[in-house]
Amino acid sequence: MKQTSGEKIFQAFNYLFLALASATMLFPLLNLLAVSLSSPIAADSKQVFLFPVEFTTASWERIFQNMGLWTSFGVTIYITVLGTFLSMLFSVVMAYPLSRKEFLLRKPIMFGIIVTMIFNAPMIPFFLVIREMGMMNSLWALILPGLISTFNMIIIRTFFMGIPGELDDSARMDGCTDAGILFRIYLPLSKPVMATVSLFYAVGYWNTFQRAVLFIRDPDKWPLQMKLRAYLTSPEELASASLLAGDYDFNTTTLKAATILFATVPIILVYPYLQKYFVKGTMLGSLKE
Predict the structure, then answer these.
(1) What angle do the packed helices 252-268 and 67-98 form, to 10 degrees?
(2) Each residue of 111-143: pLDDT tens digit?
(3) Do residues 183 and 97 lie in contact, with contact meaning Cβ atoms separated by under 8 Å?
(4) Given CB 3.0 to 4.6 Å as the disulfide criterion, which of 43, 143, 258, 281 pairs with 253?
């Protein structure tokens, strides 16, 4: 169908608006990258915008040589991978029965779950419970307290409710159990919502900060965001030794920029691999037979 002039103008305006909106999100990252690759004098004198001035990789070399950052990076990878897997497993196992009409207790259980979205546990009782469970200074304290997100579980439940019940009946006639129906039928049909919710969980674990402040005392167990906070508030820890030795190819400004990118870019790179499922997710329910 041929587009009218008005439709073409409207489409061009949309593209322009979205491009400008994307630029506002991209420019800060490009500025950080440019600062991290610039000389200390150029960075401190605000000469850097989108392109490096007096190009140097000294800040990145310093970052990559810092074993404390790599240790925190490993901790963050560990809690993100394990936490996302466990959260998805328990969320799916919880969402499946709550999506079935034949489950008689689903309404009172859902009411109790929704209440937790309105009333959160106070910090002091929450802290005392974790301490009494023996999880202080343990990485489990960064995973188990937030194992199931009510919002994410409801998203999965709502998606499961849209799957035709005739599939359940056919599977049961073939002798399939509830576990078989869930893992052989529902999960293969739910790749878009699984990818979306997995990313929600992964971003949450990657950005773990508050629970780390409350429960982790050993700096060797700090996740990346805690280490980032330490370097941003006291960047001398990252730079002082080399500066005292006469290495002026970087300073705290360029190191801060490089450290922020080091902690941010890895989780951003996950999105392109899940993009096709996001696109499928936006199309769900848009077509009817």
Answers:
(1) 30
(2) 888 888 887 778 888 888 888 888 888 889 889
(3) no
(4) 43
